[in-house]
Amino acid sequence: MSGQLRELKNRIRSVENTKKITRAMEMVAAAKLRRFQSFMVNAKPYTEGMERLVKRLQGQAAGGDERSSGKLGHPFFEKREEKQIALVLITSDTGLCGSYNIDLVSRARTFLESRTEEAAPILLGVGKSGIIALERQGLRFEQKFTDLRASRVEEILKEFKTTLEELYLSGRVDAIYVIYSHFKTLSTYESATEKLLPLEETGEEGESKKQAVDYIFEPDPETLFSRLVPVFFEAKTRMIFLEALVSEQIARMSAMHQATKNAKEMIDALVLQRNKVRQAMITKEIIEIVSGSQALKLK
User: Fold this and answer.
1) What's the pTM?
2) Of 20, 105, 245, 251, which has the highest C-beta tally within 10 A?
3) What DSSP string describes 31-97?
4) Which CATH superfamily is domain 30-254 in?
């Protein structure tokens, strides 16, 4: 019985050490979440403003500006028959984030299975988890972006955006889709599939269209769009990237919080079991003492 007690003490000590680790990881995830969230919050107004500006200018050109052809054109808005597409899968570099990566990889597999009649998509991976999972199925990634540290976010974003632009503008692909985790609230996110290119061509609608301003383009609309649209695309790509990073930290913080809670419950159960074993040992020793005392009296 003493061996059982020793084993329980060792298990309790082991679970307590695990609890300290998961608690520390939860705090680290919370700190990273605040940092990435600040990046995302700062980028959101700019991205939304750029989108509104593009829509207003498109609406103005469609309304018949005398210096425009009636429609502003840019390669990023060019609709093509989707003979060849590219798929970007954004997952995490590391694990311990619950079902975060599982949901994204599952969505990617479903997407690829639905495209069996067309040419196999060109795959680009962001984060090791998704890359490793699909490579085990025999799939090949044309380009990989890993080591997703906060200090490398700008560097990776620049390379990522340039790669997507080259793929689309060169005509190698007719559309680019991205699978990532869409941020909803500080406690929720959802996996999403979004068409990144070509961009949706939509002008102003509703009340805002009635109040549209008669813009004077300087320089001409084509030159303006050739400069504005790539900036909007970069801002949109940045938002998707940052939403994925924020969602990852939400998932990791939630997973580590649950692991810490489970460790506490396990410790409580083990302590109760240890106390029962200890009480049984004490009871046994008392019985032995009483039995020995009775035996001596009988002599």
Assistant:
1) 0.82
2) 245
3) HHHHHHHHHHHHHHHHHHHHHHHHHHHHHHHHTT-TTS-SS---GGG-----SSEEEEEE--SS--S
4) ATP synthase, F1 complex, gamma subunit (3.40.1380.10)
